[in-house]
Amino acid sequence: MQIPPAEKARLMRAAALERTSLKDFVLRNALLAAEAVIEKAERVNLDEEQTRFMLDLLENPPKPNTKLQAAARSLATRK
User: How many domains does the chain have?
Assistant: First the structure.
């Protein structure tokens, strides 16, 4: 990675303050940022109303409609 000198100096200063190498500092912080991005992309956050709605659907699922029944039959014939 090519880093402008001023930004590299700032990263090196931060790494030195944490008594670690530049490589370890950048890698550790990049991995933390990557985990945060992945977590945000993969997690579904519901507010209280949405949570209650989902729980109600799980406890009282609606009856399957015609399209769902056709899809289930279609899937069963593939196996």
Answer: 1
